[in-house]
Design goal:
GTPase activator activity, Rab-GAP TBC domain-containing protein, mainly alpha, Cyclin A, domain 1
Length: 491
């Protein structure tokens, strides 16, 4: 008999109701932090958590279970309303994320989802086994922080002449491996906001259909590039969310490394780029099964993958930075002109915010809240079918082909998406871009008065870390979105 993975262990509805109300009433910031405990010595270094679960607003375990029909169909409209009002309680966060990110269709049954989950777990196990045959450390509970091959593909040995990654799966961890993360663990960008490293790609979507290229030359090249990335993934793993008790466990670090390594193997055009570990880490924490975490991360990357594309001429996130510039120029032309005069017209100072979705500006709890509310606001009911389409057309083609006319269907769209549908706006601007624009607008006075150079801009924006309220920031982002659409329509 298939187990009901969406609903969890059986329990009386009265018990669920009582437990849910008690949990919500007792969910202070401190108690929510207990779901993701911080190492005592790091408490002074992490931003304060502002999010609090609220009865009647936050999606609770009881409300989540009640949103499913007897067969397993999910009332996605009701779930979206609740998430947009108050986020998701940690007890059911991972399960809800799988729907928000398009892993599952709300119009599927428990049985259908359980079968799909099992198929995906088997597929992940096959890909992981494929990787393990090449590098036995994969799946061993350990991970690599030293390069295992040179640029020309020759194995690198340790001082005693043994390969860094030997057949028994052991690895020699080294702190002197080349890293593009700073000493304080900040990824992605240097102090002046310039990106440090990225991958080169020309593909529109990850190709998971064929992990073994036909030509031996192509395959050898792919293997080499992948092996060269493994120690960098390891170096980033030890820096990712290192303030959390969860990652004191080497097994949990290895789980994150395994998922990122398998993803890098499957996404043969981009592979691994620094910053992906920040996106993947919450999935590892929220979803106990490694394969489930992989698929949740893979769906998240469908949204963000374009940001990680790079060529010799441009960085992937450049398109969002250009959109940001256009938004600020429209809603706050004086600020835009001031930034241009400071040589900041390309908005590279916002690079990290967009790449890792404000992970550095909020506490761990608040950043998860920010993500899930953004995803709920951006939710499009066609997301699952678009990801499941074997033709892999552009996402926007599928998401916006069938525009709903009835009010009931519109309720299945997030607030941000509904606004785009109603106004006929182009589906090319993520809510996160408007979030950055709203942050800049709220800092208008200081930026205009105090910013005499880009270093000042970076410093002023750096001060928002720990001081931003995610709920208020999102409300301001929606206001900027509305203002932008209004101004753009006039012009």
């Amino acid at each position: 008999m298939l187990l009901n993975k969406d609903m969890g262990n059986s329990k009386s509805s009265l018990d669920f109701k009582n437990d849910g109300v008690r949990a919500m009433k007792n969910s202070s910031s401190e108690e929510l932090d207990s779901y993701y405990p911080v190492r005592p010595e790091c408490l002074a270094d992490v931003p304060k958590t502002r999010f609090k679960a609220r009865v009647g607003k936050t999606l609770s375990e009881r409300r989540w279970k009640a949103a499913f029909s007897k067969e397993g169909y999910l009332d996605i409209a009701g779930v979206l309303r609740r998430i947009q009002r108050g986020g998701i309680h940690p007890s059911i966060k991972g399960a809800a994320w799988e729907f928000l990110l398009g892993c599952f269709d709300p119009d599927s049954t428990f049985v259908e989802r359980n079968q799909l989950r099992q198929q995906r777990r088997e597929q992940y196990a096959a890909w992981k086994s494929e990787c393990q045959k090449i590098v036995p450390v994969i799946g061993s509970g350990k991970f690599i922080t030293s390069a295992i091959v040179s640029d020309d593909g020759q194995p690198i040995t340790s001082d005693d002449g043994q390969p860094i990654a030997s057949d028994d799966g052991q690895t020699i961890a080294s702190d002197n491996g080349k890293s593009i993360a700073s000493d304080d663990g900040q990824p992605i960008a240097s102090d002046d906001g310039q990106p440090i490293e990225c991958a080169t790609s020309t593909s529109n979507s990850p190709d998971n259909s064929d992990a073994m290229p036909a030509g031996n030359g192509d395959f050898d090249k792919k293997v080499l590039q992948w092996k060269l990335s493994l120690h960098q993934i390891g170096l980033d793993v030890v820096r990712t969310d290192r303030t959390l008790v969860f990652y004191e466990s080497e097994a949990n670090q290895a789980k994150l490394w395994d998922v990122l390594s398998v993803y890098a193997w499957m996404d043969k055009d981009i592979g691994y780029v620094q910053g992906m570990s920040d996106i993947c880490s919450p999935m590892i924490i929220l979803l106990e099964n490694e394969a489930d975490a992989y698929w949740c991360f893979e769906r998240a990357m469908r949204r963000l993958r374009e940001n990680f594309k790079c060529s010799t001429d441009s960085i992937g996130v450049q398109s969002q930075l250009s959109t940001l510039a256009q938004i600020v120029k429209t809603v706050d032309p004086k600020l835009h002109q001031h930034l241009e005069e400071l040589d900041g017209g390309e908005y590279l100072f916002a690079f990290r915010m967009l790449m890792v979705l404000f992970r550095r500006e909020f506490s761990f709890v608040d950043s998860l809240y920010l993500w899930e509310v953004m995803w709920a606001m951006e939710y499009n009911p066609n997301i699952y079918s678009s990801y499941d389409d074997k033709r892999q057309p552009l996402l926007s083609e599928l998401l916006y082909d069938d525009k709903p006319n009835d009010k009931h269907k519109l309720k299945e769209y997030g607030k941000f998406e509904r606004n785009n549908l109603k106004t006929g706006a182009e589906p090319n601007s993520a809510l996160s871009v408007f979030l950055v624009a709203s942050v800049l607008e709220t800092k208008h006075r200081r930026l205009m008065k105090e910013a005499k150079g880009l270093d000042d801009v970076v410093e002023i924006l750096g001060e928002i870390s720990g001081n931003l309220d995610a709920r208020k920031a999102l409300d301001e982002a929606l206001k900027v979105h509305k203002k932008y659409l209004k101004q753009a329509k006039k012009s």
